[in-house]
Each structure stands twice: as C-alpha cells, then as structure tokens.
Amino acid sequence: MTHFFHRRQGELWCEDVPLAALARAWGTPSYVYSDATLRRHFHVLDEAIGPRPRLIAFSVKANSNLSVLATLAQCGAGADVVSGGELARALAAGIPAGRIVFSGVGKTRAELVAGLVAGIFQFNVESAPELEALAACAAATGLRASVAIRVNPDIGAGGHAKISTGGAEVKFGVPMAEAPALVRRVIEHQSLDFQGLAVHIGSQIGDLAPMERAFGKVFALARALGAEGIGVPRIDLGGGLAIPYDEGETHAQPAAYGTMVARAAGDFPGLLIFEPGRLIAGNSGILLSEVIYFKRGESRNFLVLDAGMNDLMRPALYDAFHAIEPVGRPRGEPVPVDVVGPICETSDLFGENRLLPPLEAGDLVALFSAGAYGASMGSEYNSRPLAAEILVRGAEHAVVRRRPVLDEMLAREPLAQWLAR
Fold first, then answer.
1. Which residues are catalytic, by number?
2. What 8-state DSSP symbol labels residue 403?
3. Mean pLDDT, residues 142-151 taken together
C-alpha cells in the first residue's frame, strides 16, 4: 500500500523527500503524490492484462491534476472523461484525443461538440436521447462520432451503495434487453460509427465474481450481435478494482483480474478498454495535515487537524476509512482519539477511536490512500482555500497546484453593481 511512502530514522518520507520538509516549504493541508507509485501501478495493470490489444484510459475524475495526467500520458495511458472540463484537462496534459473516451449520463450538446471537434476515440452513449443528441451534433458539424453503447447488466457491486453503478435501478447505461435496438439505431445514422459496447458496475470492488458475471453478459451480447452480422470491434470493461485502504485488507490483485478478463473475453479478437482510476492513483498520494489542537472531551479525546472534509470528502460521504499516521517519529504509547477537522459539521470526521501516538499542536500527520477522489472532490466550503498539490519524483518535488490566497477567492465574486455604487 505504501511502497514509496516509508520511514527513514522514524520520519515519514515520500520517495526521497521528507514530508516534514514539504510541510515547512508549502504549508498544510497539502496533497503529496508519488511519481514512482503512479507509474508502477499503471505498469502492473498493463502487464496483468497481457498481450491482447488494449487501451488503459485513466479515469480523470479520480485525480484530475494536470501533472498526474501528464505522468500517466508518458506511460501510454489514455483518459476516461465525464465532462467538458475533464476533456480539456486531458488534452492540456498531452493525452492524445485518439486515446480519450467520453463517458457519463449527462453530456451536454456543447460537450458533445467539444468531443467531436477534438476527435476523441469514443463516446460511451448511455441513453437513446443522448444518442439522438450526438447524431444531431455530428451532422451539424459534419463530423463522425465513434460510439459504444454502455449497457447496464443489472449486476451492482462496489465498496459502498453510492459507488455501485451496475444495478437495475441506477441511472447508468441502458438495459441489456434494449441495447441491440440502440445498436441498430447507431448503425442507421450516417454520422455515427458503431464501435462497441461498454460496462462499468461500480468502484472499490474486491471480489471478481460480480465483474466476471457482468463481463460474461457483455461478451455474450457481442456474440449475439455478431450472429446478426454486426461487428463489435471494441469492448470497454470500465474500472472498479479495489485497493487496500488499510494494511489488513485483502482484495483481488491485478494479476487475478487479468486472468479473469482473459477467461471472460475468450477468443474475442477486438480491442479491450479499461478505465482504472483509484487502482492507479489511490495509493499514490497522501493528505499532509498539521495538528491544531489536542482536545480532551468528557468521554473521548479529539485530535483537531487543519485539513477538513472540504479537503478530503470520502470519510464524510462514504464513511470511508483512511489510515492515519504521524509524520514524525512516534513517541509514547498509542492512545485512542477521534481525528477531526475544523469544519462546522459533525460529519467532519476522519477517524473515530483511532489508536495514535500522543500528538500535540504543530505535529504533522499523513492520511493515506488519498490520491484518488481526494483533491478532485475538494471544495472551498467554509471559505477555506483548496489544498495544495505536490508531486514528488525521487529527490525532486514540484507544486503542481498552488494553494489559492483569500484575495483570489474573493476576487471571483464581484459585488452586484447596485451594491457597489
């Protein structure tokens, strides 16, 4: 889990840089990412898939920092985007349009046109109305759209109900029974090219069995379409493979996933697309924070950090677990504390009844496994500046998103003219 986050003489480092030095230079809260971890996780998945034709399109929503995306672009990654903003980020980071897949249930016409003009690899269409909108945009621009139909296999999975996306009652994809008719509709449109099928049943999936059932349904649909004379050149298998958030967790490993994919795909000759996000970025990053207060309560003690739920939303949103460790050399016997932030919400809680060495104001802590859905979900709630983001490569580091100052935040909100007079 922490391959490139390790201790030297008791102090926590990222690769060859001490985290305490980063806190002194750039303040807290800050996200710190390991370049080596990003690259290692990409290549581990790539090797697990084996020699068959493939595109690994990193899920930009997991971590949309330009330097993270550019690092993965150097590895050969594409991008899975779900908005016009993410499309612009992927292109700005150097990911070729020919490796970009546009997913999501609510693509606007402006976003569809942006994808068409950029010449992206594929639109994952999730409804009949979206298909008609895409066809109209393509016809109006004189461009052709490569289309895959995202199917809903009625198999939900994931680490939390809010990240399960394959069940029958969710908004994603089209029912399996309706997919063939929608495929034929794609073929009827002169401005659309049918390229394949797509599926994604959830996130943080530790058991491969639901994935294999879903994949089996999609490959069976591809064979049925083939029997009608409709070729299926590509199948997008989405992402969702779990990562460990705690040292004691065990989940299916990429090698086992690759074996399962090969078994499910059988003799399918076409391109397979994968959309990992958390698997690559999750354990590549930590959230670095400073203790503001150690507060004694009537029945429990609180460790109050300068990072809040606006910086790392997952615990408040999903009751998610993040390992927490002191950055400095641990001193004394561990004591139970509730680790909280400064936000005026009871849900601003990073860990309840955690056993941590005695800590006091000014000490630093690291919240692990924060490289995915951390900074990308950050907000300025309570008028708190967004956390800085730092990328480490060996003994080098770079601030890849600086912390905004309050004057910048206020300048975005000019007073209405009748108030300024």
1. 344
2. P
3. 97
